[in-house]
Specification:
about 0% strand, 434 Repressor (Amino-terminal Domain), 2 domains, elongated, about 160 residues, mainly alpha
Amino acid sequence: MPSDNENIPAVIGRRVRELREEIDKTQAELAATLGLHRTRVVKTERGTLNLSLDTLERFSDALSVDVFSLFQDRTVMAIRGSSSVRARVSANIQALRNGKGWSQEALSENAHLSRTFVSLLEIQKKNSDIFHLEKLADALEVPVANLFAPPGTTGV
């Protein structure tokens, strides 16, 4: 599990590298599977990219793991037929927001984001990125990984 002061792109990058090496793929092979240039995989592994939800889902699919595995040291195998990463993050944000008794407006104010952004994210029309999810997680007082937790779990 990452330390509190470790940045999320670095955590994801380290996990992508570990998982890629576990399946004996080179960066070029993973990039080809993803349909990306090798430098995108290199920058991801270095923790220098602010990845989107859709890109995180592509990485987890290519590595045959659940997206939650990109945020922690243990591997969660991909669940066949599970909902998209956008749907999961949306459901988790709504559940956490409702648990605090907050409206979308209250969450947006606490996260310093627009209410429209929160609304579009919750209806899965917005492909958010790690930077914005960190703001939401901070406002909700949970680790970013909890936004990606599989259904029926309590996160990390």
